[in-house]
Amino acid sequence: MISCKKALDETPQGVVSDGDLNTPENVEKMVIAAYSSLGNDHYTSPYTSMWPYGSVRGGDTYKGGDGPGDISEFHLFETFSLNRVDNGLADELWFRLYVGIGRANDALRRIDKMDDATYPNKSKRQGEMRFLRGHFYFLAKILFKYVPFIDETIPQTAYETISNKALSNDSLWGKIADDFRAAVAQLPDAAEQAQVGRANKLSAKAYLAKVLLYQAYEQDENNNVTHINTGKLTEVNSLCDEIIQSGHYILNTDYGFNFLTSHENSKESVFAIQFSKDDGTPKGRLDYGHALNYPMNQEYGCCGFHVPSHDLINAFKTGADGLPMFNTYNDNDVAKSGDYQTNTFDPRLSHTVAIPGKPYKYAQGFVFQRSWARAPEVYDAFASLKEVVTPDDPSFQKVPPFMSSSKNWDIIRYDDVLLFKAEALIELGRQNEALPLINQLRTRAAASTGMLKLLNGIPSANYGMTTYQPGVNCTWTQDYARQALRWERRLEFATEGYHFFDLVRWGIAATYINGYFTVEKKRSAHLNDAAFRKSRDEYLPIPLNQVNYSRGLYQQNVGW
Q1: Residue 137 in contact with residue 37, Cβ under 8 Å?
Q2: Is the distance from CB of 487 to CB of 503 less than 8 angstroms?
Q3: Which residues make Cβ contacts (< 8 Å) with residue 127, sequence separation at least 6?
Q4: Other residues' Cβ atoms within 10 Å of the Cβ of residue 97
Q5: Among 221, 39, 147, 131, CA closest to 541
Q6: Looking at residue 1, what is its pLDDT?
Q7: How far apart are CA 314 and CA 312, in angstroms?
Q8: How far is residue 258's CA from residue 268's CA, in Å, rounded to a whole number?
Q9: What is the 8-class DSSP label of residue 455?
Q10: CA gap 169, 413 in Å, rounded
Q11: Closest by alpha carbon to 407, among 293, 243, 282?
Q12: Which of 141, 158, 218, 275 is spaced 20 to 30 A from 558 at the CA atom?
């Protein structure tokens, strides 16, 4: 070997240089890589629907699984008082969100250096990457409050100098809003965006409205809502008007269509994560974020997480006037008695919760059984329906020992836009204008019984609800309208992962969650140690690993 006069100079296979990526063809692939991060979560740190952090912590669901020790980190989230700064799954979540941010930044860095002649898609791809980066930062913001904001203009060598407290709470919201403002300016109209999975101008306006709605509830350093910014709410209202008046989106005729593969990318879907199977890869691009949430029966097999709470089930009750039972819904626990005929119910109950003895996911011959529950003695015997599919659904895929599907998952729907507008109007003192928006959703919900199959001639529940009719069944003051709006948001998006973040935005998380624990502890012993500490538990702690990696540059959240 030492006598050899020639050198071997070969490019290693599987290796690509940084410069090789700076071509239009490869930049397009970098853009797709950024999109893929939308659904690249894992069942241990899901962010497709944020169910462990928004539904479980918001009182919509219990953690589920085989008891508190099964993915115990989620139990720490659920109980609040037991959570720690070294919760490894919070650290994993932080990391995965920054992978998404990093991919968007990497693509933007390359796109920015190209001219329009070389890369005709330059402007709209910049808009798409600003949209995606805004999405990941939005999730990080509502989870951790203070995170380092790094964009494509900051060299990697400077990352270690960016503190998570470099920006104030409001300034960080402003940076996220700026990404969506840029996306609005650069993205094509919805009708001109040929590929349905890509962001468009209207979806960017919807996400901007969402960000501004959160930003409008201004918080101090102790997480107290100190002021509601009417200017931000006015902009939310205007953005929603532009979306509504475009005529591009409408409500599905049946609420349940939003959770079926046969209706994905419907006219109600504003922006959705696109999943797939049989796409040339071994298992497809599947929804692993919900892989734990199937029942424990022969057709599935695992794992019984994300179990609807008694509190949520009772919240679907309606009174004699056809309206929610705001103050008395929890007095009689129908989840315990199993009596769904004495009271009347909002039909969204049966689209959201699998109940023993009732058809599972609209399949009359496929009846949910108590034996399908993983740990009924701990979490009772219910299951979450929206994210799952039946075993014969074309999208279903086993990934032993777990279950998954290629069903898309909506990040924003048109019903969300209607309630963004309604909330803004109510807080602006224009509650009368919000009334028809809320009633539009209630009318749709009341009519959404066509897929709810009868079993032995008996419906799953005694459905009965109506709209708000001032002077007839309610007095539509601002306070009453606010209560109606918040109730509507909970039922419309129950188990979809955002309820807790709504509570924090409104400044009522401590009162609400501790009230929930007072009642729910009597129903489920796994919550015995649960307690919400005001001015701490509104946000997760900055993961200890991240503080250590930053060599102390990152500052811990208040109370931790």
Answers
A1: no
A2: no
A3: 182, 183, 184, 185, 186, 187, 199, 204
A4: 24
A5: 147
A6: 44
A7: 5
A8: 8
A9: B
A10: 27
A11: 293
A12: 158
Q: Return the amino acid letter for 136.
A: F
Decide: 94 and 546 in contact? Cβ < 8 Å: yes
Four-residue CA torsion sign, 49, 53, 57, 62: positive
| Exposed/middle/buried for residue 219 (C-beta within 10 Å: 0-12, 13-18, 19+) | buried
| Residue 317 three-state SS | strand
| Strand (E) or helix (H) holding 409 | strand 409-413
Cα–Cα dist 388/398, whole Å: 12
On whether the CB atoms of residues 96 and 51 are closer than 8 A, the answer is: no
Residue 540 neighbours by CB under 8 Å, 6+ apart: 53, 77, 83, 87, 90, 143, 144, 557
The answer to whether 241 touches 233, Cβ cutoff 8 Å, is no
Q: Are 392 and 261 in contact (CB under 8 A)?
A: no
The residue assigned the tokens 């953005």 is 239
Residue identified by tokens 């807790």 is 500
Check whether the bond before 347 is cis (ω within 30° of 0).
no
Sort residue 96 into left (φ over 0), alpha (ψ -120 to 50) or beta: alpha
Burial class (CB in 10 A: 0-12, 13-18, 19+), 114: middle
The whole model's pTM is what? 0.96
Which mean pLDDT values do the consecutive 10-residue runs of the chain (560 residues) have?
53 67 92 96 96 98 97 98 97 98 98 95 98 98 98 95 97 98 97 94 98 98 98 98 98 98 97 95 91 95 96 98 97 96 97 97 93 97 98 94 96 98 98 98 97 88 98 98 98 98 98 98 97 98 97 97
- Name 307's Cβ contacts closer than 8 Å, sequence gap at least 6: 61, 62, 63, 64, 373, 379, 380, 382, 383, 384
Distance CA 546, CA 95 (A): 9
CA angle 517, 519, 521 (to 5 degrees): 60
* Residue 90, burial from CB neighbour count under 10 angstroms (0-12, 13-18, 19+): buried
Q: 3-class DSSP state for residue 305?
A: strand
Residue type, 515: G
Distance CA 101, CA 95 (A): 10
